[in-house]
Amino acid sequence: MQATIYKSTGSWYVAKSATGEFLQARLPGIFKIDGDITSTNPIAVGDEVTISMEDGGQDTAVITDIAERKNYIVRSSPQSRHKKHIVAANLDQAVLVCTVREPRTSQGFIDRFLVTAAAYHIPAVLVFNKKDVYKAKDIEKFAHWKEVYESIGYTVLLTAAAAGEGIRELEQVLHNKTSLLSGHSGVGKSTLINQVLPDLQLKTKNVSGWSGKGMHTTTFAEMFDLPGGGRLIDTPGLREFGIVDIPKAELSHYFLDMQPYLNSCQFNNCQHLDEPGCAVKEAVEAGEIDMERYLSYVAIWHSIGEKDY
Ligand SMILES: Nc1nc2c(ncn2[C@@H]2O[C@H](COP(=O)(O)OP(=O)(O)OP(=O)(O)O)[C@@H](O)[C@H]2O)c(=O)[nH]1
Ligand SMILES: [Zn+2]
């Protein structure tokens, strides 16, 4: 029987069968996966699998096969630096919840997320939450980021999840799609989910008096059906989002604002750093590429292969 994975803890899974039933599923002791993914979790949320009912079991199933993934997002495994952790598979879009304040999401983090999504050909959406606490300077910052990212082609929304503002627009963006929701701990993911899935009261935690670090209230990735159609995947608070598998030399391909210039550099292996005749740097100087985006590029470029995120 075909089923979709809605929850993955690494040792057991929740699968929704083609007939709409939720079942607890496990992997048999020996489970072979095609391909070369060395991952700490062979099956991830969003995976399409084949299951068979366990002998004698009423509502427990064994996963016997996994369908080829349309795409997936990975990060370095929290347990092992050399392994990957598949965050979710078969996505239509990746939504990053960010905040300009309490806590401020760094542009470097946003850009690493966007690079990763681009590398896996997953459209990305930025949702800036906690609008209600933004001061004039923060609104300016948001307006700048909105202009920069929309001009690249990303969808940018502004919400005040706790007050229910901007939720209609978010629902429209999520409609009939499978969306991965991520973001740092404390940006308001659970609060947003509670707005679009009112039946499901996720625990939110109070981070008033925010001092940088928060406890994770969400531990495992989980997928939910949206009432109007579509699915939403909630992930554990991601403090880090790894760029895995992207060679340094290819990084600029995933900066979508750099793409139009890449063939115009003097050297065809130009890394857009100190090389003469670099069309990307000329575009930055001409204000056609945002300077902070370029600085993110340089920072990410230097970090690849030298340290794990
Ligand atoms: N001022 C303000 N606070 C908000 C808003 N949305 C959420 N919060 C608060 O921010 C804190 C964190 O919200 P959560 O929804 O738990 O954040 P989260 O992203 O799910 O956090 P993790 O589960 O740790 O990943 C809570 O105290 C919320 O009440 C908002 O729009 N404005
Ligand atoms: Zn160049």
UniProtKB/TrEMBL annotation:
Domain EngC GTPase residue range list: 89-239
Domain CP-type G: 80-241
Enzyme class: hydrolase
Keyword entries, A-Z: Cytoplasm, GTP-binding, Hydrolase, Metal-binding, Nucleotide-binding, Ribosome biogenesis, RNA-binding, rRNA-binding, Zinc
UniProt KW Metal-binding keyword: yes
UniProt xrefs under HAMAP family: GTPase_RsgA
Quaternary organization: Monomer. Associates with 30S ribosomal subunit, binds 16S rRNA.
Protein name: Small ribosomal subunit biogenesis GTPase RsgA
